[in-house]
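pinned: reference chain
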Amino acid sequence: MSHLLFDPPRRALVTGGASGFGLAIAQALLEKAAHVAIGDVDARRLRQVQQTILGSNVLSFELDVTSRASIREAIRKCEEHFGGLDTLVNSAGVIRFAPLIEITKEDWDHVLDVNLKGAFLCSQAASPLLGASGRCRIVNIGSDASKIGCPMIVPYCASKFGLVG
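pinned: its structure tokens
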């Protein structure tokens, strides 16, 4: 029995793919013989992943989801290496723990820029390749915090509520 779940294989970009849910998703896709690009802003974790996950169906690179230039370069690499893209997993995310009174504007902006605007920017930039594939899939990783508010992670909750919406 083949381990190939997708015929032809999926071509996926996983943001935040060097740790947590993103890494687990990237590994699950690879187990199903998908071609997977792993993008992450954390260069150290990305190097660790590059040492453990090898193969011609894996591509990894630094990706800052708050930067249009970084995103455009990631999409270009996916197109060059895989010949296109049909799946985008928006898994990049950050969280800050603080009571409401202590949250700075910079903390608020950073969490929403990564978790919410980053997913929008990646989806927008990838949409030409996704649409051209005829098998477009965009998966946004939410959280329990996208359903209920939590007082110590207000910006995170706002970003995940927005992402689900």
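why pinned: Strands lie at 11-15, 35-40, 58-62, 87-90, 137-140. The chain has a mean pLDDT of 94.
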